[in-house]
Design brief:
Number of strands: 7
Number of helices: 11
Oligomer: single chain
Shape: elongated
Order of helices and strands: HHHHHHHEHHEEHEEHEE
Length: 474
């Protein structure tokens, strides 16, 4: 009984360790999202500051020429906004490089912006002074490259900080795996030794045989339940890592449509402010473009929400839906690494299952292919992935995923589905992905995953790659 109590205490400690890593993962993701929000605001304000430096110059010229009081009041509002935005950027600037741009002699942006604002305020008191107008135009022109530099630096810092948080996810995985290893060392191995000892005792203690058997049965059931819990935590941890990458993909996918919307709205706003005529056709075209980009942003949110949605109950699904969802979620990652995906799928193949669960399997295989392909020299070889579905004569459904990454070494190809086996460096590989894929397909779909090296030709070029086949038996 004392031994069982010690095991429970040890296991409680390990469970709390796993809970700690889960919360750590949650807060890391939350910090990643908050960082994206903060830097989005900084990038937006710095871009707005850049626009105001040009807009105020145009307003000064118009006020000088027309002496229009409404334009004058609007100019005063723009100067106030520019002051406020400059203060916000100075207060939230943390990096040495940006502080150097704002405060040190090479760029001295803080003083230059304040001098520019001072020139604008001087103009407010001297509306007829032509030389002040010319000085403002010249100063604005000289200020623009440095303001552009600040916007680019904020964008780069956002990317760098996001990557730092992603690196923390690897620490979370390492900590989780270490906890599981300690569980095996402190619980599973001692339990096996204790079972051997108990078998010897059973030979000598026939008088209490039934009680001993019942005790061992309870211990085994308890350990089996704990192993199931551990497998579940490993699966959830693997999905958290995928979610982190998906957030990065979505952030990358949002930049272009947001830029398009900002450009269109700024153009329309400037024309309206300066009473320039906007053709109905031009306005309709601009609105249609904004709606298209907004719909794209909404779709990326829906894709991410559907990916993380838990739905254990199997339903009738189309295999093509899981494949297409996987490609959408990995689209930016594949594009940025110049990986070409050739898809040949049967839209009508359907079966009982879970779209998100099957997508997780496909994503893990595609991510492994991507990690291999990015090591290829683009000047010497294309980076290719081929996805194909088929229905065989004996009524099997097969998803084939082939890359041209050079294949897997024959000495280890039979081990790729073993838990925690990986050929990658510990900072980028854990060995969980493919083993979880194998477990999902075998236990939940009664199917099978195989892998082999294949030589093939594409566009008259010869390639070698790894061919994964996901087989569903009907």
């Amino acid at each position: 009984m004392k031994t069982i109590l010690n095991i429970k205490i040890t296991y409680a400690i390990l469970i709390f360790s796993l809970i700690f890593w889960a919360f750590f993962a949650f807060f890391t993701m939350n910090q990643l999202i908050n960082t994206q929000e903060i830097y989005a605001k900084l990038i937006n304000v710095s871009g707005k500051q850049r626009m105001l430096s040009q807009k105020t110059t145009l307003m000064v010229k118009r006020v000088y020429e027309t002496k229009d009081k409404n334009l004058l009041n609007h100019l005063k509002e723009l100067i106030t906004t520019m002051k406020s935005d400059h203060g916000f950027l100075l207060y939230n600037t943390r990096s040495k490089e940006l502080k150097k741009i704002y405060l040190e002699k090479e760029h001295n942006l803080d003083i230059r912006v304040k001098n520019y604002i001072s020139l604008l305020e001087t103009f407010l008191d001297n509306l007829d002074n032509k030389y002040i107008v010319e000085a403002i135009q010249k100063y604005s022109f000289e200020l623009l490259p440095t303001l552009d530099l600040v916007v680019n630096r904020f964008e780069n810092e956002s990317e760098e900080y996001t990557n730092e948080l992603k690196d923390r996810e690897l620490l979370i995985l390492f900590g989780t795996l270490l906890t599981i290893f300690l569980e095996a060392l402190l619980i599973v191995i001692p339990s096996v030794n204790r079972m051997i000892q108990t078998e010897d005792e059973l030979k000598d203690l026939n008088n209490n045989l039934e009680k001993k058997i019942e005790e061992q049965k309870n211990i085994i059931l308890e350990e089996q339940n704990e192993i199931k819990k551990r497998d579940k935590l490993s699966y959830e941890q693997s999905k958290l890592v995928s979610m982190g990458e998906m957030i990065g993909n979505i952030a990358h996918q949002w930049r272009q449509p947001l830029s398009v919307i900002t450009t269109i709205v700024s153009g329309i706003s400037l024309k309206l402010e300066y009473d320039e005529k906007i053709e109905k056709k031009e306005l309709n075209t601009s609105l249609e473009k904004i709606l298209v980009q907004a719909d794209y942003l909404s779709k990326t949110i829906d894709d991410f929400r559907n990916f993380i949605k838990v739905d254990k109950k199997p339903t009738k699904i189309k295999i093509s839906e899981s494949i297409n969802k996987s490609l959408v979620l990995l689209e930016s990652s594949l594009k940025v690494n110049h990986i070409k995906v050739d898809v040949s799928i049967d839209e009508d193949l359907s079966m009982l299952g879970n779209v998100n669960e099957l997508s997780q399997v496909i994503i893990n295989i595609l991510k492994n292919a991507k990690d291999v392909l990015i090591n290829l020299d683009e000047e010497d070889s294309q980076r290719l992935i081929f996805i194909k579905t088929e229905k065989t004569k004996d009524n099997k459904f097969i998803i084939s995923i082939l890359d041209n990454g050079g294949g897997i070494e024959e000495e280890i190809i039979n081990r790729v589905f073993e838990p925690y086996f990986t050929t990658k460096h510990s900072t980028i590989g854990t060995g969980i992905g493919l083993s979880m894929c194998d477990k999902i397909i075998r236990e939940r779909y009664r199917g099978n995953i195989t892998v082999e090296n294949k030589t093939f030709y594409y566009e008259k070029e010869k390639y070698i790659g790894a061919l994964f086949k996901i087989i569903f038996y009907r």
